[in-house]
């Protein structure tokens, strides 16, 4: 768990060893088979004491095994009931108190507790490719091993606030500029650290002990911290950790080190027991779990190897296509971008170039690294012939089955036989698109989220005949584009939009019954969603859903004469969104939708008196009794109907576990990470509670099938509401209680 060795005559080397990332585990595992294993923290403490006791050792270097310093505390340990004794903070103090110089040799990563160990060292040397950070805030915690007290003393309050409240990882070069490390090397970092340790022997260490240093003063510290707190609270949308990080740093500016450490511990314990940390740590592991995809037929990374993508093509340079091209260029994959005519091509080219210029400005190495003016990297064309040599095509034209089929039939003819054909769609049937090609096994859905170069989520949809190699290739491409790929099955709306449908439907029904758009949005935004359903609908454009409902025959000319206004196929239907569209209210783009905006294309939503009186007239016309609807009902009807659909999706095998649904919602639909995703949230509310509420609402609204509890939810409750990790194992088990 940590190896002790002699690096040079007088220098002891303590090497943290816990693959794959040298997490600092502090659990004494009690299972008989592994009870002998030493925790990393115990081993680190033993190494320090051994070095201290050995008179021939004059200095110490701490490094990590396999070119990685440490990814910090073992995250699994925070939710384990078997935690024992050892804390990291006291060990960091022990390092700092050492009378022998201690040098951290930082390679790969030094994150969280790993960086806190390095902050206890008297000197820090980093490899030029190393990355550092205190990402505890991203898992609902704060740097609880004295990091909130040492970092401001080393780099000053503004930089410490930035690093601790965002959790961002910074490169070694930035760490050097901030003074976080003393030296950056390109050579062997451990050898450089040993050399430095040798030179330091006998030198005074007092000035290098951060706990003894004052926090650098700012002329307006109090005002600066209050402003920072206000900013952080606004950004956090109900997440506690960023706010408590600021409080801990504030303590560093006001109190002596030891008192600051006590405050840090107090705040850390609040977070640890808040429930938010558990949700965010679940989200951390959920993201890694979905990366290890499987399908119901058993395909997985083990059975399939991704094929190399040396050149890709994107068809259609609308909003989505532009973002996809940008993502591919950023991933350094040569791209051909195709449009139907020169006018659209030029428009698309200009827009892509603008996006790329902006992205390049954000990058450390700038535009040179992207090299997007080089035609070998990015080419624009109107002729399908340029697609002959590409390895993969992503079609991103608008959602029209006939058009997509025409394109795929052409692609099947023109592209080389081994090329993969992907469609960017948010709902359409992958099998139908694949059916017009001679290679359905190489056809796959890739549902990007707008803006595609920013949003991390990528739903990857396999059809009946999609091969495991095609899935593996799409997943690998997602990884290269730094996206979170989630493999899901083929059904209308896939996972994300299918769950969204009952949610949006409830939101509109609530308007019929008495709510205003701003009431519904506020309740859901207070819950933590980034944007409520009506603000979202105005942003995306109401006309998008209107077109789809017309295609489905739910409204418009194809609607059978005599169809009741508020009923379709025997169930409740609300024509409210259609009526708004008929009045040209498409949302932000027309300056009016569920809200009003300062102008067409405006972004500031203002409650609209016109909408309020329109809703009154509508309710009167349909003789709907208006009632006051409280926040609780808004949340329950919108969120529980979404969760209910999630249970059906799991039961149908569209996703292989609840984590998939949660990762989709956190990364693509603005679900608050500190609530862990909808299915995790359901597990915290308690499945019997969700079931009881759905039963209640479905009795009140028997004409809304989406409120009828899913059979799988009922089954889980009947089986005693097992832990979320065990849900899928109960899917096919018989229950005599049902
Ligand atoms: C007692 C101390 C009290 C308080 C103070 C300290 C608090 C902390 O230190 S909290 C932890 C802070 N650290 C982090 O948040 C880092 C989290 N990890 C990452 O960001 C990334 O994993 C990485 C940058 C370190 C590596 O990324 P990548 O190369 O893409 O690999 P993976 O993410 O797939 O990770 C590989 C593998 O390692 C597991 N893992 C990573 N970090 C931890 C960790 N800190 N604890 C436990 N496990 C960790 C990760 O789950 C992967 O494992 P699986 O493949 O089995 O899922």
Automatic annotation (TrEMBL):
<dbReference type="GO" id="GO:0003857">
    <property type="term" value="F:(3S)-3-hydroxyacyl-CoA dehydrogenase (NAD+) activity"/>
</dbReference>
<comment type="pathway">
    <text>Lipid metabolism; fatty acid beta-oxidation.</text>
</comment>
<dbReference type="Pfam" id="PF00378">
    <property type="entry name" value="ECH_1"/>
</dbReference>
<comment type="subunit">
    <text>Monomer.</text>
</comment>
<dbReference type="InterPro" id="IPR006176">
    <property type="entry name" value="3-OHacyl-CoA_DH_NAD-bd"/>
</dbReference>
<feature type="domain" description="3-hydroxyacyl-CoA dehydrogenase C-terminal">
    <location>
        <begin position="493"/>
        <end position="597"/>
    </location>
</feature>
<keyword id="KW-0560">Oxidoreductase</keyword>
<dbReference type="InterPro" id="IPR006180">
    <property type="entry name" value="3-OHacyl-CoA_DH_CS"/>
</dbReference>
<comment type="similarity">
    <text>In the N-terminal section; belongs to the enoyl-CoA hydratase/isomerase family.</text>
</comment>
<keyword id="KW-0456">Lyase</keyword>
<dbReference type="GO" id="GO:0004300">
    <property type="term" value="F:enoyl-CoA hydratase activity"/>
</dbReference>
<dbReference type="GO" id="GO:0004165">
    <property type="term" value="F:delta(3)-delta(2)-enoyl-CoA isomerase activity"/>
</dbReference>
<dbReference type="InterPro" id="IPR036291">
    <property type="entry name" value="NAD(P)-bd_dom_sf"/>
</dbReference>
<keyword id="KW-0443">Lipid metabolism</keyword>
<protein>
    <recommendedName>
        <fullName>Peroxisomal bifunctional enzyme</fullName>
        <ecNumber>1.1.1.35</ecNumber>
        <ecNumber>4.2.1.17</ecNumber>
        <ecNumber>5.3.3.8</ecNumber>
    </recommendedName>
</protein>
<dbReference type="InterPro" id="IPR018376">
    <property type="entry name" value="Enoyl-CoA_hyd/isom_CS"/>
</dbReference>
<dbReference type="InterPro" id="IPR008927">
    <property type="entry name" value="6-PGluconate_DH-like_C_sf"/>
</dbReference>
<dbReference type="GO" id="GO:0006635">
    <property type="term" value="P:fatty acid beta-oxidation"/>
</dbReference>
<dbReference type="InterPro" id="IPR006108">
    <property type="entry name" value="3HC_DH_C"/>
</dbReference>
<dbReference type="InterPro" id="IPR001753">
    <property type="entry name" value="Enoyl-CoA_hydra/iso"/>
</dbReference>
<dbReference type="Pfam" id="PF00725">
    <property type="entry name" value="3HCDH"/>
</dbReference>
<dbReference type="InterPro" id="IPR029045">
    <property type="entry name" value="ClpP/crotonase-like_dom_sf"/>
</dbReference>
<dbReference type="GO" id="GO:0070403">
    <property type="term" value="F:NAD+ binding"/>
</dbReference>
<keyword id="KW-0520">NAD</keyword>
<keyword id="KW-0511">Multifunctional enzyme</keyword>
<keyword id="KW-0576">Peroxisome</keyword>
<comment type="similarity">
    <text>In the C-terminal section; belongs to the 3-hydroxyacyl-CoA dehydrogenase family.</text>
</comment>
<dbReference type="GO" id="GO:0005777">
    <property type="term" value="C:peroxisome"/>
</dbReference>
<dbReference type="Pfam" id="PF02737">
    <property type="entry name" value="3HCDH_N"/>
</dbReference>
<keyword id="KW-0276">Fatty acid metabolism</keyword>
<keyword id="KW-0413">Isomerase</keyword>
<feature type="domain" description="3-hydroxyacyl-CoA dehydrogenase NAD binding">
    <location>
        <begin position="311"/>
        <end position="490"/>
    </location>
</feature>
